[in-house]
Description:
Chain A has one domain (18-67). Helices cover 82% and strands 0% of the residues of chain A. With 67 residues, chain A is an all-alpha fold. Chain B has seven helices and no strands.
Amino acid sequence: MIFSSTLPNSNDGYVAAAYIVFFAIVLIYVAIMAVRLGRVEQRVRELGSRARKADEQPQSEQERETV
Amino acid sequence: MPRPTLRTLSVLTVLAFCVYLPLVFFYAPIEAEEGFVQKIFYLHVPLAIVSLCGFVLGGLFAIAHLRTRESKWDLRSYVAIHMSLIFGIGVLVTGSIWAHASWGHWWVWSEPTLVSFLIVMLLYATYQPLRFAIEDPERQARYASVFAIVAGAFVPMNFLAVRLSTSYLHPRVLGSTSNLPAPMGYTFLVSLLAMVLLFATLCMYELAAKRTRILLKSRSRILGYQ
Lengths: 67, 226
């Protein structure tokens, strides 16, 4: 059998390691998602500013024409 | 409405974890043979169950995609499999830690449960390369669905084959061989519920993010901002 005299004396560290690994995996996943969300937000801001510029441009052109 | 659902699920998950962790460390009795290291059971086993069910769920969503041809089912199938892979990594790592603490080895090749789970993981590891190797979105979704159905059917068959095998070095949890005392059983059920909620929350989170990105891309294309 595999389990015999190789059993460690204190196993508390293993339990801590298992739970830390699990929470680290979840944390890494959430961090990656947060970075991606940040990129999406930046893109939305870019699109917003471009749309605003596009709205302003025809108005100023119109003003030039009328003047 | 995805937002309130995601928020409600997130709150429920946090609450479930607030109950689950104290139950594991302060309520569930310490097992006589393995001692404190048996606490890994409340993490490893629910993770494995949720991960395998997630793979099957991905297959069921893929069936819905092939039947309806609606892209939302393909997206759900992809997210379920992706999340199951992440949970599966957790299963392999926590399982190895538990194996080393209990058996003195990080991995036991003669144990069918471990090897079969690794085979399932390796099978699903090919899902994303296969998916993203195809450029045409229609074909990509169709091929990915076929893969998800075949692999999803393989998961329960694999589970049954392992159950019917003769080696029982790996502890059995579900079925007639289960003889957990009541406090351990309750703790296990709460831990399973917490993992299911975490899986659902992360899936919803990723689905919302993916939908937003798809919407943003299509709007950018419409407005001519590539």
